[in-house]
Write a structure and sequence with these properties.
The structure is a single chain. With 342 residues, the protein is α+β, with helices and mostly antiparallel strands. It folds into two domains: 178 residues, Alpha-Beta Complex (Lambda Exonuclease, Chain A), CATH 3.90.320; 82 residues, no CATH class. The protein has eight helices and six strands, in the order E-H-H-H-H-H-H-E-E-E-H-E-E-H. A hairpin with a 5-residue loop joins strand 2 and strand 3. Helix 1 packs across helix 2, helix 3 packs across helix 5 and helix 3 crosses helix 6. The protein starts with 14 loop residues before the first strand and ends in a 42-residue tail after the last helix. Bound molecules: iron/sulfur cluster. The site of iron/sulfur cluster (SF4) has 13 residues, from helix 2. One of its GO terms (biological process) is DNA repair. This is PD-(D/E)XK nuclease family protein. Pfam families: PDDEXK_1.
Length: 342
């Protein structure tokens, strides 16, 4: 085992909570450059709170035409959508219904931007005060790139709620320094867009918050969460996204990442998992089964609602039969029997 990997973490093939992580320097020039994702499953650029489903960025204003598209690839967020509720997946991927920004998800986007930009500074200057000083500028940039987020504070003329929201962003950024030491880290990649095609033709894509590569070539995939760590019985669900990314990295580089690391800024926990090849093969089989179900629903137009307590986070209750709503007309051609039964 490479001594530069956090030895205190879980054993290979097992998950565990670790003390603050140790460094993994040296970039890997073989990693593809980061770009923005596009198309279908434009994965939410905002991370979600631990209990909330990952959001889809709101697009456009009322009355804007959105062309329906058949699903063409899978991201962790949209795979989770389908597992949570097939009808939610349809609304997000095929109908592309707009969604309102939420305070929690927008704060997550802001905190992610700050943590990413902090690594622009020389290692010795990556301090908590410097990170917190980045918040106002990154908030300005976020409002420029996604003007809809200003709606969040439209009813806050005195700016009190905004001040509290920004203060919480500061707390989350500050907590990061108790979990990792950025002066000892030199990420190989930040906000890395990855995409890989499986032998079946299924395309997987997503954005990895941070990739660390040790001089020995061992890869650590890191994801920041602004929510709280899940209870141990729900850790597997949280790790699904990470194993998805590990599968993509393995497919791209034929390297099984040495460690998957979830950093929960909301609760100050670090959850790690050291995957083995069998984990990735299992995830691949699961994704194929999922994709088959998505293709079947796409052909038939049969997207069932699956109500759970997460419906409270869903923006589409007005279109959902479980809440007395009616879905918009199905916009794709139906080529299988049993169509349109939602
Ligand atoms: S309200 Fe619930 S059941 Fe309906 S689409 Fe949303 S998540 Fe699915």
């Amino acid at each position: 085992m490479d001594s530069s990997i956090d030895e205190a973490a879980a054993q290979p093939g097992g998950a565990g909570r670790t003390p603050p992580a140790t460094p993994l320097p040296a970039p890997d020039p073989a990693m593809p450059a980061a770009t923005e994702p596009a198309g279908e499953a434009a994965p939410g650029t905002a991370p979600s709170p631990a209990t909330a489903p990952a959001p889809v960025p709101a697009t456009g204003g009322a009355g804007e035409e959105r062309s329906a598209v058949a699903p063409a690839s899978l991201s962790p967020s949209r795979a989770s959508d389908f597992m949570q509720c097939p009808l939610l997946y349809r609304f997000r991927v095929i109908d592309r219904l707009p969604e309102k920004p939420s305070e929690a998800a927008t704060r997550g986007t802001l905190v992610h931007a700050v943590l990413e930009r902090l690594f622009d500074a020389p290692a010795g200057e990556r301090t908590a005060p410097r990170a917190k000083a980045l918040i106002p500028g990154q908030w300005d940039r976020l409002r420029e790139s996604r003007p809809e987020v200003t709606e969040l504070f439209a009813d806050d003329p005195e700016g009190e709620r905004l001040a509290g929201w920004l203060a919480e962003a500061e707390r989350l950024v500050e907590r990061w320094f108790s979990l990792e030491d950025p002066t000892r880290l030199e990420p190989a990649e930040r906000e890395l867009f990855v995409e890989a095609e499986l032998e079946s033709g299924l395309r997987l894509r997503g954005i990895i918050d941070r990739v660390d590569v040790a001089p020995t070539g061992e890869v650590r995939i890191v994801d920041y969460k602004t929510g709280k760590a899940p209870r141990p019985e729900y850790a597997e669900g949280a790790l699904f996204q990470m194993k998805f990314y590990a599968l993509v990295v393995w497919r791209l580089k034929r390297v099984v990442p040495r460690r998957l690391q979830l950093v929960y800024l909301g609760s100050g926990d670090v959850l790690t998992y050291d995957p083995v090849l069998a984990d990735l093969e299992r995830v691949e089989r699961k994704l194929h089964a999922l994709w088959e179900a998505i293709e079947q629903a796409t052909r038939s137009g049969d997207w069932r609602p699956r109500p759970t307590k997460l419906c409270g986070w869903c923006d589409h209750q007005a279109h959902c039969p479980e809440f007395g709503g009616t879905p918009p007309p199905y916009p794709l051609p139906v080529t299988a029997p049993g169509a349109g039964t939602v």
